[in-house]
Design brief:
This protein is an alpha/beta fold and 286 residues long. 38% of the residues lie in helices and 16% in strands. The mean pLDDT is 92.
Length: 286
C-alpha cells in the first residue's frame, strides 16, 4: 500500500479518522490523585469534566481518560476503583457529539465498562497483558492503541537494556498487531505507540524518536506521547511544569518523521506545533 493509503484510516466504532489529512491531537485527562504531570488536579469528576471540555475547546480530536497512573513505580488500582473514577466523567462527556473518548487502561473489565459508557477507543499501554482485553475490543468495534513497554510501571525503569531499541520495539509491535488480528481486531482499528518513556533510558527514547520512520513499515498509524516526560526534564534540567517547549519540539519532529497521533497535556500549543509539522511533512512529499 502507498504510505498515504487506506492504512491511514483509523476505525473507532462509528468514527473513522482520516489520518492522511492531518495529525490528530489526543488530550490527556488524568482522573487520578497521583499523576506525575498534574498532581491530581483533575481527580474530582467535576474538575475532570471541566478540563476535558477545555481541551476540546483548544482543539483536541480525542480525549484519553485514565484512572490508573502509569508513571514509573506506580501501584496498581483495582478494577472497581478505576470504574468508580471513570464512570461519572464518561457519563458527562459521552453525549457530546464533538467527543471521541479513549480509555487508558490495561484492565479488560475497565475497558468493557468504559465502552458501555460511550468510549470509542481503548489505549492499552501493556498491549494485551490482560488476556481478556483482545476479546473486549474485538466485540465492541472500538479503536485500539497498542503500546510497547518493557516490564510494568512498577519495574520498567530498572536498568532497561536493548541491543537495538528501534528494531526490538518494531518486532514487539508487529507481534502485538498480529495478536490483535488473530483475536478478531482488524488492522484498520489499530494504532501503534512506541512507548516513549516506558522502560527506556533517555538515550533509548531519543534514538527511538529519531528512527521513527522505521516503524512506518508496520502499516499502521503511529501515536507518540512525549508531553512533560522525564526525557525532557533530564535533558533540559527542568521540572514537570516547565517542559512545554521541549515537548513541542519533540512532538513536531515526531510528526515530521511519521507520527499521525500526538498525545499531550498541552493541547492548544501542540495543535499549533503539529500543524506546522504537518505542512513541512506535506511539503517534502514527492
Amino acid at each position: 500500500m502507498s504510505p498515504e493509503g487506506p492504512e491511514l484510516h483509523w476505525h473507532c466504532r462509528d468514527r473513522v479518522f482520516d489520518l492522511s489529512a492531518r495529525t490528530l491531537v489526543m488530550g490527556v485527562v488524568n482522573v487520578t490523585p497521583d499523576s506525575f504531570s498534574d498532581g491530581g488536579r483533575f481527580f474530582a469528576p467535576g474538575a475532570a469534566v471541566a478540563h476535558a471540555r477545555q481541551l476540546l475547546a483548544e482543539g483536541a480530536d480525542l480525549l484519553d481518560l485514565g484512572a490508573e497512573s502509569t508513571r514509573p513505580g506506580a501501584a496498581p488500582v483495582t478494577t472497581a476503583e478505576q470504574i468508580r473514577r471513570l464512570a461519572p466523567v464518561l457519563e458527562a462527556l459521552a453525549a457530546d457529539p464533538r467527543v471521541c473518548l479513549a480509555v487508558d487502561t490495561a484492565n479488560a473489565a475497565v475497558a468493557d465498562r468504559a465502552l458501555e459508557l460511550g468510549a470509542r477507543v481503548v489505549n492499552d499501554v501493556t498491549a494485551f497483558a490482560d488476556p481478556g482485553m483482545a476479546a473486549v475490543v474485538a466485540r465492541s468495534g472500538a479503536g485500539l492503541v497498542l503500546m510497547h513497554m518493557a516490564g510494568t510501571p512498577a519495574t520498567m525503569q530498572r536498568d532497561p537494556h536493548y541491543a537495538d531499541v528501534a528494531l526490538e520495539v518494531r518486532e514487539h509491535l508487529a507481534a502485538r498487531l498480529e495478536a490483535a488480528r488473530a483475536a478478531g481486531v482488524p488492522a484498520e482499528r489499530v494504532v501503534l505507540d512506541p512507548g516513549i518513556g516506558f522502560g527506556k533510558t533517555v538515550r533509548h527514547n531519543f534514538e527511538l524518536l529519531a528512527r521513527l520512520e522505521e516503524l512506518k513499515s508496520l502499516g499502521r498509524p503511529l501515536l507518540v506521547g512525549v508531553s512533560r516526560k522525564s526525557l525532557l526534564g533530564k535533558t533540559l534540567d527542568l521540572p514537570v511544569d516547565q517542559r512545554l517547549e521541549g515537548g513541542l519540539a519533540a512532538s513536531a519532529v515526531a510528526v515530521f518523521l511519521g507520527a499521525r497521533v500526538v498525545r499531550t497535556h498541552d493541547v492548544a500549543a501542540t495543535v499549533r506545533a503539529v500543524r506546522i509539522a504537518d505542512a513541512l511533512r506535506e511539503a517534502r512529499r514527492p
